[in-house]
């Protein structure tokens, strides 16, 4: 889901219910059955499902219990099963459930790490530290943990002083840069739908805020666009032109990006550059049934475009209001429930303006994009036994005529192949 939803009014809500392990969670953990000498994790024998079950080992756990080559009898859900010892892992005491840092766990097997993540996720705690790393699990819903009130919790604090959060990682990098005078890097990685795009946006927003001070946004001249606003405004444009719906993610980045944010010696924001690479170009002309092409194609046909320029954006781009007129972008899904394309066009338009695009530059981007979409309707016809094919017509109302107009070229030059 694109993250451009703005808070309407009133103070920011308290973020602690989604960041702090509350006392009622601790009390519930104490009720969990646990035998320190027999409780173990065993792998699910169904390899397709995977995961682990908690069971009771018949033998008392000792220092050599899990030695490779041994076999252990474990009672799982009332049934006694035999497992290889090196696939079994001891269970942590219940007091370690919901640990903020995996490094604090007594036992660090795969099952222990997975269980701690599951317990935190079930209690709507989506961030967990694991040593130097921060693990984020996408909740697929919005929590109020990215507000200015939340940012102020992490500003100037050490990571260990606050609850796990991507802001803690960003603050540690910012402090490391200021204290050591050396460049810092934050690597955000994960599978499709894990939340890489959203967390990247949060890091950029936090650094833009912390480098100007918490009150900077309120004190600045509202008539002048600040550098931090411009850096944050790159996100809607990058998402419009580089993100698309996939089978697993409604707002998946289909390209990689390396973002460099520059600061002065005193820690003030002074610039930013973005290197993008490996754009999935094949998606422009073909999509699977449950997928969609890049968001910008669908934004161009939205009603909000009528307010952007005289005559409307669709007329300026030589496109209709029916997405099914364009085969390149209508082979899969054309609408996504979690995305309002009309609203997203508003954010894209605002971002172009904040970044200082001139009117002609901005409309050049829109019109050229529409031209690419229009090319899918061009059909060449062979005549007789001639090896060449040509267009039946290049009139202004044809796909060929509209594409040529969008590209600013003569349609006759595209009439023969």
Description of the structure:
With 417 residues, this protein is α+β, with helices and mostly antiparallel strands. Helices cover 30% and strands 14% of the residues. The protein contains twelve helices and 13 strands. It has helices spanning 23-30, 110-122, 148-154, 166-180, 196-210, 216-219, 227-242, 295-299, 313-317, 341-354, 359-374, 399-407, and strands at 39-43, 52-57, 71-76, 79-84, 89-90, 127-130, 133-136, 243-244, 252-253, 256-263, 269-277, 381-382, 389-390. It has a five-stranded antiparallel β-sheet, covered by helices on one side. A two-stranded antiparallel sheet has the order 6-7. Strand 3 (71-76) and strand 4 (79-84) form a beta hairpin. Helix 4 (166-180) crosses helix 5, helix 7 packs across helix 10 (341-354) and helix 11 runs antiparallel to helix 12 (399-407). The longest helix is centred in the middle third of the chain and has 16 residues, at 227-242. Residues 1-5 and 215-220 have low confidence and may be disordered.
SSE map:
Layout lengths: L22 H8 L8 E5 L8 E6 L13 E6 L2 E6 L4 E2 L19 H13 L4 E4 L2 E4 L11 H7 L11 H15 L15 H15 L5 H4 L7 H16 E2 L7 E2 L2 E8 L5 E9 L17 H5 L13 H5 L23 H14 L4 H16 L6 E2 L6 E2 L8 H9 L10
Antiparallel strand pairs: 1-2, 1-5, 2-3, 3-4, 6-7, 8-9, 10-11, 12-13
Give a short overview.
The chain has 417 residues and is an alpha+beta fold. The protein is 30% helix and 14% strand.
Give start-end ranges of low-pLDDT stretches: 1-5, 215-220
Measured on Cα atoms, how large is the radius of gyration?
Answer: 27 Å
Report on the biggest sheet.
Answer: 5 strands, antiparallel
Order of strands in the sheet with the most strands? 4-3-2-1-5
Secondary-structure element sequence?
HEEEEEHEEHHHHHEEEEHHHHEEH
Overall body shape: globular
| Average of the residue pLDDT scores | 91
How large is the count of helical segments?
12
Specify the helix fraction band. 25-40%
Query: Helix/strand-derived class?
Result: alpha+beta
Q: How many extended strands? A: 13
Instruction: Give the CA-CA distance, first to last residue.
Output: 42 Å
Please report which band the strand proportion falls in: under 5%, 5-15%, 15-25%, 25-35%, 35-45% or over 45%. Answer: 5-15%
């Amino acid at each position: 889901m694109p993250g451009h939803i703005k808070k309407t009014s009133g103070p920011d809500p308290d973020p602690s219910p989604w960041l702090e392990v509350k006392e009622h969670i601790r009390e519930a953990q104490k009720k969990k059955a646990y035998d320190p000498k027999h409780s173990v994790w065993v792998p699910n024998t169904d390899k397709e499902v995977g995961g682990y079950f908690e069971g009771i080992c018949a033998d008392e756990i000792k220092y050599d219990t899990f030695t490779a080559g041994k076999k252990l009898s474990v009672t799982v859900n009332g049934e006694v099963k035999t497992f290889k010892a090196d696939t079994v892992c001891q269970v942590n005491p219940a007091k370690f459930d919901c640990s903020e840092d995996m490094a604090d766990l007594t036992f660090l097997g795969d099952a222990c790490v997975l269980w701690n993540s599951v317990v935190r996720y079930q209690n709507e705690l989506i961030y967990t530290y694991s040593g130097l790393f921060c693990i984020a699990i996408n909740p697929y819903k919005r929590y109020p943990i990215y507000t200015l009130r939340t940012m102020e919790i992490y500003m100037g604090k050490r990571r260990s002083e606050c609850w796990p959060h991507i802001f803690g990682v960003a603050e540690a990098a910012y402090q490391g840069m200021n204290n050591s005078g050396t460049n810092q890097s934050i690597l955000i990685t994960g599978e499709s739908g894990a939340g890489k795009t959203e967390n990247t946006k949060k890091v950029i927003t936090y650094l833009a805020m912390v480098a100007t001070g918490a009150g900077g946004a309120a004190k600045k001249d509202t008539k002048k666009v600040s550098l931090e606003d411009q850096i944050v405004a790159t996100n809607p444009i990058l998402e419009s032109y580089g993100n698309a719906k996939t089978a697993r993610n409604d707002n998946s980045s289909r390209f990689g990006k390396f973002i460099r944010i520059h600061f002065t010696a005193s820690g003030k924001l002074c610039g930013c550059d973005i290197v993008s690479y490996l754009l999935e170009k094949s998606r422009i002309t073909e999509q699977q049934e449950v997928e969609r092409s890049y968001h910008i194609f669908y934004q161009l046909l939205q009603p909000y475009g009528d307010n952007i320029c005289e005559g409307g954006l669709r007329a300026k781009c030589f496109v209709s209001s029916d997405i099914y007129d364009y085969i390149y972008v209508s082979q899969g899904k054309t609408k996504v429930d979690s995305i309002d394309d009309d609203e997203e066009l508003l954010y894209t338009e605002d971002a172009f303006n904040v970044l200082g695009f001139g009117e002609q530059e901005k409309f050049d981007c829109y019109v050229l994009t529409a031209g690419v979409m229009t090319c899918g309707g061009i059909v060449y016809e062979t005549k007789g036994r001639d090896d060449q094919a040509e267009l039946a017509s290049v009139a202004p109302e044809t796909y060929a005529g509209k594409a040529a107009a969008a590209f600013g070229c003569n349609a006759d030059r595209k009439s023969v192949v």
